[in-house]
Write a structure and sequence with these properties.
Pfam families: PCMT, PG_1098_Fer, Thump_like. The protein has about 400 residues and is α/β, with parallel strands linked by helices. It has three domains: about 60 residues, no CATH class; about 190 residues, Rossmann fold (3-Layer(aba) Sandwich), CATH 3.40.50; about 130 residues, no CATH class. It is about 30% helix and about 25% strand. It is built from 16 helices and 17 strands. A nine-stranded mixed sheet has the order 3-2-1-4-5-7-6-8-9, with helices on both faces. An eight-stranded mixed sheet has the order 11-12-10-13-16-15-14-17. α16 links the parallel β14 and β15. The longest helix has 14 residues. The protein is flat, with a radius of gyration of 24 Å.
């Protein structure tokens, strides 16, 4: 099965890479000698991949599958992070997909097996691996469980799975038992064939429920990119940890990383101390919150909490290593339009975040007339006495990210 593109096809894709796919499809008759429909799919997939797979999207010799496979693929940064977690001589990616994770595993491990039941997608990956000069991957087409049963027990150091998270109606699903393949059913087989299992799940999946259902978790990672939670990874082995470590990582656009670790015991033992807003305000990143580090993150950095349910912290002394956004507080205001506008420039712009606050960001903007933008940050929350307050702040550890959030 030849999936490569002709020179004319590659030229068409390169010339129209930034054009609207729908418009290109309507102009197909202008190119009777080219499979324009398939090439428009290539363009559309590359456009979707530009942000998370920039090097692949820019490579004219690579072939891209249907856009859904690209949407479900890991980003280059999260794939590189996962590759750092595995070691040994032999790894198998049992849910191969577009092959992004496989290609990164191949940079860390001597022998990698890619398994995919979609023959055409597997052929695309085989082609792309050749273009990328990756020669230590064996491509297998077929059912992952059937293929795995044929392999010797204990043959792999690691098995990796990223189960499909869509049902037959193409709706997102978030229960392990509803994913394909069913990891819970396959777990005994997986543990016979490998020392370790690395399981990727949707960030929407409940961590506590997954830990209970899997039962063999040694540790887990919550991975965010630019403060957007992307995936949760579980390491499984023959024996589970009594209280698995929960490691969080926020991969930021400027190349920095924020990390934090906690577990159920440390979180339960953490006793928050409360205070009115002080000089600095801290907002944990989404990975910390997803891992359940609501109290332990404050205890670890010796910070004071504004309210039991606000998950905002404060201090007089700056903690630059805090895993989240850091602000310097200029003023503490009532939820009052006139008082807030007095702290803004004439354009009346600010970034707004609400935490433990009755109004949404949209409602806040409607009531105050404050538009998005500018350099001022407004954190609307509740203080330790139960009063609604708005913190007028400057951002200290700025990096490009979503400016308005609600939780």
């Amino acid at each position: 099965m030849d999936v490569s593109l002709s020179a004319a096809a590659r030229q068409y894709v390169a010339e129209h890479l930034h054009d609207d796919p729908a418009t290109l499809a309507l102009q197909a008759r202008r190119y009777p000698d080219l499979p324009v429909r398939e090439l428009v799919q290539q363009i559309q997939a590359r456009q979707k991949a530009k942000a998370k797979l920039p090097a692949w999207a820019a490579n004219p010799d690579l072939v891209f599958p249907a856009s859904l496979s690209v949407e479900q693929a890991s980003s280059a940064r999260t794939a590189a992070f996962k590759a750092e977690l595995v070691a040994g001589a032999r790894v198998a990616d049992l849910t191969g997909g577009f092959g992004v994770d496989t290609s990164h595993f191949a940079q860390q491990v001597g022998e990698v097996h890619y398994v995919e039941r979609n023959a055409q997608l597997a052929e695309v990956v085989r082609h792309n691996l050749g273009i990328l000069g990756i020669g230590n991957v064996q491509v297998h087409v077929g059912d992952a469980a059937a293929w795995l049963r044929e392999q010797p027990d204990g043959y792999f150091n690691w098995l990796y799975l990223d189960p499909a998270r869509r049902d037959t109606a193409d709706k997102k699903i978030f229960r392990l038992a509803d994913c394909e393949p069913d990891v819970l059913r396959l777990l005994p087989l997986l543990l016979r064939k490998a020392e370790r299992i690395l399981l990727k799940t949707s960030p929407m999946l409940d961590v506590e429920q997954a830990l209970q259902e899997l039962g063999r978790v040694r540790r887990l990672w919550v991975v965010a990119v630019d403060n957007e939670c992307k995936e949760v990874l579980y390491e499984l082995g023959q024996e589970a940890a009594v209280d698995p470590e929960r490691l969080t990582i926020n991969l930021m656009r400027d190349g920095r990383e924020q990390s934090f670790r906690t577990n159920r015991t440390r979180e339960a033992k953490a006793t928050p101390r409360y205070a009115e807003p002080q000089t600095y305000i801290y907002e944990p990143n989404v990975a910390v919150l997803k891992a359940g580090g609501f109290k332990s993150v404050g205890a670890s950095y010796n910070l004071l909490k504004l309210h039991q349910h606000s998950h905002l912290y404060t201090s007089h002394t700056l903690r630059e290593d805090f895993p989240g956004r850091i602000f310097q507080c200029r003023a503490v205001c009532k939820y009052d339009k006139k008082e807030l506008l007095a702290h803004l420039d004439a354009d009346q712009r600010a970034h707004v975040t609400v935490r433990n606050f009755p109004d949404s960001v949209a409602d806040f903007r409607y009531r105050t007339g404050i538009r998005e933008g500018g350099t001022t940050y407004l954190l609307a929350t509740t203080d330790l006495r139960g009063r609604l307050i708005v913190l007028v702040c400057d951002r200290l550890n700025h990096h490009p990210s979503t400016s308005s959030e609600q939780q």
